[in-house]
Amino acid sequence: MGKLFDKAQRAEAALDFEEAERLFKLAARMDPKNLAIQHNLGGVLSSLSRLPEAEKAYRRALALDPGSARTHYALSQVLMMQGRYRDAIPHFRRRHEVPKYNTNKPAFFECPEWNGEDLAGRSLLIWPEQGFGDELQYARFAPILAERGATVRLVCRPQVSRLFRRSLPGVEVYEASGRVEIPDCDFYVMGPDIVGLMDYTLETVPGAPYLKAAETVASSARIGLVAAGSAAHGNDAYRSLNAADGLTLAAALGPTIGLDYAATGGKDFADTADIIEGLDVVVTVDTAIAHLAGGMGKTVWLLLSRIDTDWRWGRGRERSTWYPSAEFFFSDAKGQWGETIERLGARAKALG
Prior knowledge:
By secondary structure, this protein is an alpha/beta fold. It folds into three domains: about 1-95, Serine Threonine Protein Phosphatase 5, Tetratricopeptide repeat (Alpha Horseshoe), CATH 1.25.40; about 125-195, Rossmann fold, CATH 3.40.50; about 225-350, Rossmann fold, CATH 3.40.50. About 45% of the residues lie in helices and about 10% in strands. It is built from 16 helices and nine strands. The protein has helices spanning about 1-15, 15-30, 35-45, 50-65, 70-80, 85-90, 130-140, 140-145, 160-165, 195, 235-240, 245-255, 260-265, 270-275, 290-295, 340-350; strands spanning about 125, 150-155, 170-175, 185-190, 225, 255-260, 280-285, 300-305, 325-330. Strands 6-5-7-8-9 form a five-stranded parallel sheet, with helices on both faces. It has a four-stranded parallel sheet with strand order 3-2-1-4. The longest helix has 14 residues, at about 15-30. The termini are far apart. About 40% of the residues are buried. The mean pLDDT is about 95.
């Protein structure tokens, strides 16, 4: 059994998902009570975009071990890919128990966790988690909650605080730098949980622009470019373009401006927003810049790997409901970008 399982894992690592599926299913018939087999089968079926089947595999795994936080989290990703955010909540909240995910959740809050209760006349503390993209994505909900009668206190990192203060009406923004005094709150919530607790779906999530520039910074280029994200990201090998592909893309697009701080001289996301305001298009891999430009309502050409595509972009779509101004451009099934770069070059030339 061990050799068969190892062979299936090697097939999965080689991106031969059909063979991996065949082998894991064979192993499951031989050992139907093996948690690891069902869990890994769920991952392979998710990679094949067969989400209902992946869900069943993960639920079989949880029937074998209801306490497996890793499987709960994996199931949540499949549910969220389908826009079933409310269904995902009890499983998604188990992410804090999985060591590989640094969710930044404090060990203790002096108020209970929000579970969707009426917030009119009450106060809510929104706590940040994971990367800047997550902070930018979920900030949209803070003013909506404030409009519903809540006193909303949003904690964020310094790099986004100035942007949030000018973009989120009715929201108290607290920069997480040094010692911060925050008034007592009735509830707290981790930012990524809000979408499920507010009963949104993939089709109903609010997509109107909510992030604002203060001014327009002129640029000689019309296209902003981000070809790579942080190397620390778990899927960066496929998410980011390698150096050669990055240079090829830049040449295909024509004159561009890089949107990282080193290229722009900006000090935070507020400065970057002012630069983006003056551009026609932002071309980016799946990084925080995609969320910033999308949240501003700017045209975004978003490069997405077909390998382990993040849940928030769904499956089988060419556009984002989170960011209606964003259009998807996928790699091929092996994570190669050649044809996609050619398409993007043609689109850039069509801008005139």
